[in-house]
Design goal:
By secondary structure, the protein is of the alpha/beta class. Among the domains are: 127-214, Serine Threonine Protein Phosphatase 5, Tetratricopeptide repeat, CATH 1.25.40.10; 243-423, 3-Layer(aba) Sandwich (Rossmann fold), CATH 3.40.50. Helices cover 55% and strands 16% of the residues. It has 21 helices and 9 strands. InterPro entries: Methyltransf_11, SAM-dependent_MTases_sf, TMTC_O-mannosyl-trnsfr, TPR-like_helical_dom_sf, TPR_rpt. Keywords: TPR repeat. It comes from Dyella acidisoli. This is Methyltransferase type 11 domain-containing protein.
Length: 431
């Protein structure tokens, strides 16, 4: 268990199996070996091991909770819900199980039940900082009135007061204040944060996002890496909590209409692969599927999930520049939202494609017919359609198709985005 907690999975697996050689069906060894197997992408084996352990120790709340986590992360929400309820039946004060139950209820859009579950968590554990943070996020993401966003402000304040290491609570506080049009208060949150941590990239970027400093042309590498490395362990969970997150599926469906045959013959790059959510959507088309992401934490999760032939940690523009004309498809769901100016990265994307290859990506949509880019309080950029069409043409793309769709929900409201397809001309010459 010490090796497991230190992320030395090879040693941990060897020792768990030695325990099971010495004592067949030792339940703790089966339970934690199951957790480890899931971490390595062998989720079916993980379920088998933990279910076997629970036959021996059926009232083990941690095992029920971990089995629920595996079902949750595999998208089996009803099974996960049953496991968390069993964990709570065995241990009524199992705060993690109560938290996880709230998450899967929210993911199933049973918002009233989810609210009650979060409220029960805070009632049971009023000094549990993460609980206040999650309630704040729930209230803002599902806000039906201004009062809900105001309540989220108090939750984020409490979360940070209870745990000053929870900087995501500060970020959430700033976003909620801005959503309430309290821009100066939001900016002051980030200024105060910068006084405490002058080199921290998150408050520096978010201060610009809420209008308190000049907006950069793109989010800095240090900001993106810091946010997503810290987000890696809970990234899929956060997406689960918003079933309206549709960008990968919508983009894959649009691309599929152009590729027609899923015959496994294409070289595909998942540009900004994150935890690997897009791999199952792209795998049927690919003879070789490569993922690249700036966050090492995200890439490690993608490696555990499986589905890729190759994974690399790299900045996207530089990666594309070093791989000329080797891809048939570049697929980028919700990655270029961290780029304001798109010209350079789209130039390199065109050069990385073979003639006739397709670029598919999503952006958040800015209103208006003018050529414009906006940095929003979320820390992401929005682009007008006119800007997108201009930079694609300048990069050398043809067959440009830009359509609008709802890609996610934020603060209880739909976020409209661009679903973009562009083809490198079949007879294109090298730049």
């Amino acid at each position: 268990m010490q090796s497991h907690q230190a992320d030395d999975l090879d040693t941990a697996e060897r020792l768990y199996r030695e325990v099971l050689d010495l004592r067949a069906a030792q339940p703790d060894a089966m339970h934690y070996l199951g957790v480890l197997c899931h971490q390595r992408g062998c989720s079916d084996e993980a379920v088998r091991l933990i279910e076997a352990a629970l036959k021996i120790t059926p009232k083990h709340p941690d095992a029920h909770n971990n089995l629920g986590n595996i079902h949750k992360e595999c998208g089996r929400l009803a099974e996960a819900e049953r496991c968390y309820k069993k964990a709570l039946a065995c241990g009524p004060k199992h705060y993690n199980a109560q938290n996880n139950l709230a998450v899967v209820l929210e993911a199933q859009e049973r918002l009233g039940e989810a609210f009650e579950a979060y409220a029960k968590l805070l009632q049971q554990a009023p000094k549990f900082a993460q609980g206040h943070y999650l309630m704040g996020t729930f209230l803002r993401n599902n806000a039906q009135s201004v009062e809900h966003v105001e309540q989220s402000v108090e939750c984020f304040r409490t979360a940070y007061a209870l745990d000053s290491r929870n900087v995501r609570a500060l970020e959430g506080l700033g976003v909620s204040l801005y959503a309430l049009h309290r821009q100066e208060e939001a900016a002051q949150v980030y200024r105060d944060w910068l006084i405490r941590e002058p080199e921290h990239p998150v408050p520096r970027h978010m201060l610009a996002a809420c209008g308190g400093a000049e907006a950069p042309s793109r989010a800095g590498d240090d900001y993106v890496r810091k946010v997503f490395d810290g987000f890696a362990d809970s990234f899929d969970e956060q997406l689960l909590k918003n079933l309206n997150y549709r960008a990968p599926q919508v983009l894959a469906e649009a691309l599929g209409k152009e590729l027609t045959l899923a015959d496994g013959t294409l070289d595909i790059l998942d540009a900004g692969c994150g935890t690997g959510l897009c791999a199952p959507l792209l795998r049927p088309y690919a003879q070789r599927l490569t993922g690249v992401d700036l966050s090492g934490g995200m890439v490690e999760k993608a490696r555990q999930r499986g589905g890729y032939d190759e994974l690399e940690v790299a900045e996207l523009t530089a990666f594309l520049q070093s791989h000329p004309q080797i891809y048939d498809v570049l697929f980028s769901a919700d990655t270029l939202v961290y780029f304001g100016e798109l010209q350079e990265v789209l130039n390199e994307a065109c050069a990385a494609l073979r003639p006739g290859g397709w670029l598919a990506f999503t952006l958040e949509a800015a209103e208006g017919g003018e050529d414009r880019v906006d940095l929003t309080p979320s820390g992401r950029y929005q682009h007008t359609r006119g800007y997108v069409e201009r930079v694609l043409a300048s990069a050398g793309f043809a067959q440009v198709r830009v359509s609008s769709d709802t890609l996610r929900k934020e603060s209880g409201q739909p976020v409209v985005g661009w679903v973009v397809l562009a083809q490198r001309p079949a007879l294109s010459t090298l730049r």
